[in-house]
């Protein structure tokens, strides 16, 4: 007997005939888990705030290179603001060098973190900024190091700084909170439990907000909505959907990237969460962003749409009505394997839907390939006969 060709083997691997809907959706969810693992390359949950080497050398350091960290830590308790500022700057520089493993644990071991947290409460924006920067980079380390920041009571003070009148202060505070939230679901929930969301959403709606602040705030929002075990509390995270609907029309690719990831994280859950995305009017814009010129935007937009397609048949139909099929077929022609894999997953979600949705997909593929014209009555009869066999 002749062996089966590769095309037939590929088709066989996608067949779900004989499986009930629950089994199809279970397989879809398993595929989704595999696709989520590849997200690590696209989305970093923590970031260190780095300083240029030339900038470090140009600054007049009270504590030159090689000064013991214990001596620097003692200066944090000095009465003079200049001494406190110099000590914070020294720690900040040590934790911020390009291309080097930061001495996070060495800084923690001096016992300075509680004092750095206390300085967040001082009525001095320069001190607040430097302290927030130090905590940002400590929180970029291991889970244990991040929990040190939490354990010293930094979170409520950082959240309060989101109302600062100084953009450079609130930007650094939101960055620190994003790093803490990105460490683990447990740390994320500590942040969410500190009433951050009203302050963060208000910040995201500030007209003419500095772009770097907006980028950091949008990134922090994505970290607050990510995670599966456990998922973030929906009653808190879903409050961001109206703001997200506005952010998705921003022109900056970084803001769009973070916002699409937020939508993807929210839709990666039960149908009730997907429905909030649908009701918020986000679907059409997400489909549009699947064809954005920046791959960093396409990837999360496609992920968000794929997650919405895991919903019920009505939710799937909303996506189909937004002309998602032409965009998916376009993505299948790209040279990027990960995008093609995501597009195939999204299409499999459509074909796991009801009979009409499967027919819509077959009709589109045949007409798109110029095989048959569904508007031609003779062709329509052939199509209906074909679909009856699907």
Question: What's a quick, concise take on this entry?
Answer:
By secondary structure, this protein is mostly helical.
Main traits of this protein?
elongated, Leucine-rich Repeat Variant
Please tell me about this protein's structure.
The radius of gyration is 25 Å and the shape is elongated. Helix 11 runs parallel beside helix 14 (211-225) and helix 17 (253-267) packs parallel to helix 20. It contains 25 helices and no strands. The protein is mainly alpha-helical and 390 residues long. Residues 1-43 and 52-60 have low confidence and may be disordered. The longest helix has 17 residues, at 21-37. This is Importin subunit alpha-6. ARM repeats lie at residues 153-181, 195-224.
């Amino acid at each position: 007997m002749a062996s089966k060709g590769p095309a037939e083997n590929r088709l066989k691997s996608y067949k779900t005939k004989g499986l009930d809907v629950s089994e199809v959706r279970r397989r879809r969810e398993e595929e989704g888990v595999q696709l989520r693992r590849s997200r690590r390359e696209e989305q970093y949950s923590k970031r260190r705030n780095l300083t240029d080497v030339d900038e470090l050398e140009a600054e007049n350091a009270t504590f030159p290179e090689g000064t013991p960290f214990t001596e620097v830590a003692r200066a944090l308790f000095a009465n003079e603001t200049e001494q406190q500022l110099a000590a914070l700057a020294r720690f900040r520089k040590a934790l911020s060098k390009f291309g080097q493993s930061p001495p996070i644990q060495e800084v923690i071991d001096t016992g300075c973190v509680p004092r750095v947290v206390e300085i967040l409460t001082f009525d001095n924006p320069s001190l607040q900024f430097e302290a927030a920067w130090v905590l940002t980079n400590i929180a970029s380390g291991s889970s244990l190091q991040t929990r040190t920041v939490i354990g010293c009571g930094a979170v409520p003070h950082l959240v309060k700084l989101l109302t600062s009148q100084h953009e450079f202060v609130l930007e650094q505070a939101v960055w620190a909170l994003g790093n803490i939230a990105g460490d683990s679901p447990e740390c994320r929930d500590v942040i969410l439990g500190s009433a951050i969301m009203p302050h963060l959403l208000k910040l995201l709606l500030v007209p003419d907000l500095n772009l770097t602040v907006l980028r950091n705030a949008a990134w922090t929002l994505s970290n607050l909505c990510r995670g599966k075990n456990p998922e973030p509390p929906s009653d808190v995270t879903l409050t961001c959907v109206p703001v997200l609907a506005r952010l998705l029309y921003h022109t900056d690719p970084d803001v769009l990237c973070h916002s699409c990831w937020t939508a993807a994280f929210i839709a990666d859950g039960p149908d009730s969460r997907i429905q909030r995305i649908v009701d918020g009017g986000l679907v059409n814009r997400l489909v549009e962003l699947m064809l954005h010129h920046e791959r960093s935007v396409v990837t999360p937009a496609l992920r968000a749409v794929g997650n919405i397609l895991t919903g019920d048949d009505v939710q799937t139909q909303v996506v189909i009505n937004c002309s998602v099929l032409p965009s998916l077929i376009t993505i299948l022609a790209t040279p990027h394997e990960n995008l093609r894999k995501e597009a195939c997953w999204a299409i499999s979600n459509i074909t796991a839907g009801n009979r009409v949705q499967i027919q819509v997909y077959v009709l589109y593929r045949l007409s798109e390939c110029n095989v048959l014209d569904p508007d031609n009555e003779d062709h329509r009869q052939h199509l209906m006969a074909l679909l009856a066999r699907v």
